[in-house]
Amino acid sequence: MAKILTEKLNLWYGDFHALKDVNANFEPNRITAIIGPSGCGKSTMLRVFNRMNDLIENVKTDGKVLVDGINILDLDADLVKLRKEVGMVFQRPNPFPLSIYENIVFGERVHSENIKKDRLDEIVEMSLKSVLLWDELKDRLKEPALRLSLEQKQRLCIARLIAVKSDVLLMDEPCSTLDPQATAKIEELMRELKNNYTIIIVTHNMQQAARVSDDTGFMLLGELVEFGRTQDIFTAPRDKRTEDYITGRYG
Amino acid sequence: MRKFKEFIIEKLILICGIASIFFVVLIFLFLLKEGLAVFNIVSPFQFLFGKSWYPISEPPQLGILPLILGSLLVTLGAAIISIPIGVGCAIYIAEVALLKIKEILKAGIALLADIPSVVLGFIGMVTLVPLVKNIFNLPTGLTALSGSIMLAFMAMPTIVSIAEDALYSVPKNYKEGAFALGATHWQTIYRVILPAASSGILAAIMLGIGRVIGETMAVMMITGNAAVMPQSILVPVRTLTATIAAEMGEAVVGGEHYFALFAIGIVLFIISFAINVTADLFLHKRQ
What we know:
Structural class of chain A: alpha/beta
Radius of gyration of chain A: 18 Å
CATH class of chain A: Alpha Beta
Number of helices of chain B: 11
Order of helices and strands of chain A: EEEHEEHEHHHHEHEHEEHH
Number of helices of chain A: 10
Mean pLDDT of chain B: 92
Number of strands of chain A: 10
CATH superfamily of the largest domain in chain B: MetI-like
Strand content of chain B: under 5%
Oligomer: heterodimer
Strand order of the largest sheet of chain B: 1-2
CATH superfamily of chain A: P-loop containing nucleotide triphosphate hydrolases
Largest sheet of chain B: 2 strands, antiparallel
CATH topology of chain A: Rossmann fold
Order of helices and strands of chain B: HHEEHHHHHHHHH
């Protein structure tokens, strides 16, 4: 069954039609890459899935987006629950100006009524272990998170999501500020996390999409032009526009 | 010819720059010269911690502790009132209010800053003072509390506008990160935005307090000006500033009283300087 399913999803920023009749199906335990040139609507689509577009004024959506069968575009959708389940990793790593420890337990502090110290310690250890930072940071938990390297910060942001037990990770160009070596490490982490998560990654970098993803969607001018197995998209695209893009004729 | 013109202009600007420093130094030296002379008559300890201020008795008693306590009491009261309201108002403007309300509020606060302090003092005298007198059933409404309330109005514009700037300058992606983790708006504000803006907000508070401690006119009009050790906030007090303003006119130039008033000026200067330096430290920490 699909983890996230969109049906005739349309979105307007004021008069600008940013997403046009998008129908897509994101399966669990797979990495789906969304590729396309700047301004094609790929980040916009990602931000629909956890309703981050609500922060922008003058946005109108219609159609359906089902997460576990529930339409999250409903006005009375439980946003706190949604955002707990559907976590987001941003382009620029954005740890809070708090300690490493407090960054990871942020979700727990926000969501649970009575907080136990042991429980928090457990969460920190478990989350840092899942992003392979535990050995590096276990003695530095009280240090400010802003002192970490960019790659460590991005991992910490992923750890923060693991700590709230998200099942979907939305990644908006998570490696665009990182060097190739750090990028390779984050990609490795993604492959590891895929066993437990549904991962959707928006990327500018076609090689990255080809390397890490199982499925790929190609977007152009707000339309989802083609969606399928990554291998098929990159070796035998059905649409002329997809072919032009992946062979580098524009973008 | 052109080169000559450049030369002249450059030197003129240089003179302007030096002049401002020169005048500050001159004022400071004058203050020191006139003020330090008082210590020929009383020791610094007696001056700062003496409990009676009778500058024209014979011999004069020049203890400014009641005045220092008066200033601190009024300032503390003003801080207790203006900090929560001012910071709350800044949070509302920066994070919650819709655009239209935001503009109205900001204009209102700017207007509050434009009211001359003598006018605020006058309004306080005819409205607040009788009110305080009736509510607490006092012999007079000219009290430290009245002064605190009025000064809180003067500190508010400074606190609100600087704290609001600090809140605005918190990177937007902190907010997004918190929302994306399922935090509510209020949780985002107090767990992420406030800590991130804390040094700027502290600077705003310090500058607001600096404004209060140096204020003269309004406090002179509504605090009652009794130079006695204050027992509570419901009695008349006299502040450092009001003492100088009220007595300088009648002090004999070169007399003990005159020197003592200048020494009070030095004390005030040191307090303001310390507050401004602290505020500056907080502001720089932010950058």
